[in-house]
Design a protein that fits this description.
- 76% of the residues lie in helices and 0% in strands.
- With 239 residues, the protein is mainly alpha-helical.
- The protein has one domain.
- The chain has 8 helices and no strands.
- The mean pLDDT is 85.
């Protein structure tokens, strides 16, 4: 098996892209474990646990199941979109000649060889296949959460103090919901980096800049966004 015939700049930009994607995911997790500034998802986890504790005290949980269903539909839509994009990318593999002629006529683009075109399409395919499996797993987790909601006893049976069994049930539901949101976030991250991958077809330097830009956007939204500040400000005192 031989490596694709790519220029040193292509290999460098590809290595930078992979470092940005996997490096940021690693950095985000390590920073949270070090108990530094909380992530958007960490603040949301406290609100999830508070929501579940309130939910288990009421008899009518139609609103709660509607919330789960609405979020599950978002994952379903994105998973379906992945299938359409994957089908389009497979078609693009067979239309490389027309695409190469089109890119050759564009100004400010580096020479796009057939190898470079195929590698770019394959990278996009990998990103969207990963996103598809991540979103479908997220959908299953929301289904698991629905079953756990159905297993919560009526409000009359959950008045404080809660038994150890009830407490474990609440914690399990909160963890499943958190994992569903975690995988949804990972799927969205694949969408973000697939946007950066489009720059692969233009120029290696632009590809590196696009990858860096995606990391900057993700970092700001996850650690310094106004949404995070609002979630932290609204944390219940018992959390």
């Amino acid at each position: 098996m031989t490596l694709p015939d790519l220029s040193p700049g292509d290999w460098l930009s590809l290595a930078w892209f992979l470092l940005c994607w996997f490096g940021y995911a690693r950095y985000s997790g390590l920073r949270t474990r070090a108990h530094q500034r909380p992530r958007l998802q960490d603040a949301l986890q406290a609100h999830i646990l508070h929501w579940i504790r309130i939910m288990q005290q009421r008899d009518n949980r139609m609103v709660d199941t509607a919330v789960i269903s609405n979020i599950e539909r978002n994952a379903t839509f994105l998973a379906s979109s992945c299938l359409l994009i994957i089908a389009g990318l497979v078609t693009a593999l067979g239309a490389s000649d027309k695409a190469l002629n089109l890119l050759a006529d564009m100004p400010f683009t580096a020479l796009v060889t057939p190898h470079r075109w195929d590698v770019g399409i394959l990278l996009l395919l990998i990103a969207y296949i990963y996103a598809f499996f991540t979103f479908t797993w997220c959908m299953r987790q929301w289904g698991f959460a629905s079953f756990l909601v159905g297993g919560i006893p009526s409000g009359a049976d959950t008045s404080p103090p809660l038994t150890a069994e009830r407490e474990r049930h609440i914690e399990a539901l909160a963890q499943v919901v958190w994992l569903a949101i975690y995988h949804f976030n990972n799927g969205l991250r694949a969408y973000y980096f697939s946007i950066a991958l489009l720059a692969w077809f233009i120029h290696p330097l632009l590809f590196m800049l696009a990858s860096t830009w995606v990391v900057a956007v993700l970092y700001r939204r996850e650690f310094h966004s106004r949404t995070l500040k609002a979630l932290l400000h609204g944390l219940p005192e018992t959390s």
